[in-house]
């Protein structure tokens, strides 16, 4: 992987140079990890005129959560943990002879940006913009392999939960059990805070688990994800507890399932982001559920759980091959509950079989 990280850094160095900057400073943690192999807390990456340096407030631990740093990188630990690695990097760039430095303005606070200019007044500060985020959009096969393993772990954890007794247990307890199972199966940790919603809480996007207990006849919606070597996946499913589903539950589930399928089938290289959203949204809108929809149908995943592209009504751009995304339409009916169905897929051309489904837990409406 050292060669891969070196190529990524060379690409960014060339881009900065083309914009007139002699050096570049990367501070957003996911971008640091993408270019360096790891991201110890607080670390920044300086692509300097002479060499690349990772500046850290503390000595890296080598923990899996931090990642495995590229051995070719020089690592500098600040003399005091209270120091700011970004400020130290600007000072180092100026001392190395750089007259200009591109930074990630969208990641830096105003105060931090001012501190850079104060410590290195001869440096002309420019903006990298979202260059690294855009580079991260298309994944290589090794990145996709990590996502595939993360999805397998999430599927395993969810499958085991479905085999256990659920009635009487709280949303919070079920969420904690799922997160423990993720780690037991080899995840670095959960990709995000696990959501478990029962009864009137089901189908709510981003619902924080409460002390409500699972009851017979409830909808149970679960959204979880695993992180593996820094890469994050997402899966969401909805079930009925302990009895034959009611007619309204079957109807709502069928509509959301049809919308999710429409969104998945719209994934193809060259498809507009908003066209994927529209494919799913039209199904729900036609069924009279427009008011219950979320802001977007899905989003990219990778080193962050929500990254570009956004599959939303106003999103501009087109999908490329090897871009992993979620398709996660849902409807929540206040006071009654709702349905969410969420998969992680990789965009593939039709010649390669179309979109690759990473999360494979059944989407059949099960009565548990």
Automatic annotation (TrEMBL):
MF (Gene Ontology) = aminopeptidase activity
User: Creatinase N-terminal domain: from which residue to which, for each copy?
Assistant: 8-138
* UniProt biased composition (Polar residues): 192-201
Peptidase M24 domain location, by residue? 146-348
InterPro entries xref list: Creatin/AminoP/Spt16_N, Creatinase/aminopeptidase-like, Creatinase_N, Pept_M24, Peptidase_M24B
The source's superkingdom equals: Bacteria
| Record's protein name | Aminopeptidase P family protein
